Amino acid sequence: xxxxxxxxxxxxxxxxxxxxxxxxxxxxxxxxxxxxxxxxxxxxxxxxxxxxxxxxxxxxxxxxxxxxxxxxxxxxxxxxxxxxxxxxxxxxxxxxxxxxxxxxxxxxxxxxxxxxxxxxxxxxxxxxxxxxxxxxxxxxxxxxxxxxxxxxxxxxxxxxxxxxxxxxxxxxxxxxx
Length: 177
What we know:
With about 180 residues, the chain is of the alpha+beta class.
């Protein structure tokens, strides 16, 4: 028979673990303290709006629209768009220090730089879809990741990738307005 005192001693580590983990799980932002001033980062984010065209036996996939966002370590931004093969004027901007630090922290804290480049298979019946890729250089380490939008593949796109994608999409929407 187990004595009640053993239950109390057994419950203490469980309670401490809950007190530590609940704030970490419920917090929806990555702490900015993860990045430091010595970190260097460069990000190249490319989105393609693709369309599959069938010519009888052959198929061709072509880009209807391509967007390229390039972020330098000092916060300089370059945003380029090509629609139907016609390049638009580039937009040059500057990312504020807080936003750049948040992006660095997101990539560094989540282990984004160590995600393996997987190949996501596109479903057969999909004709219009978005395919994205990001090349991140963090402190000399380079990682390139390619992925389609979730409804174009049966595989699960990791949440870390979609978090970084949504942050970069926010930046694009802010500078392209």
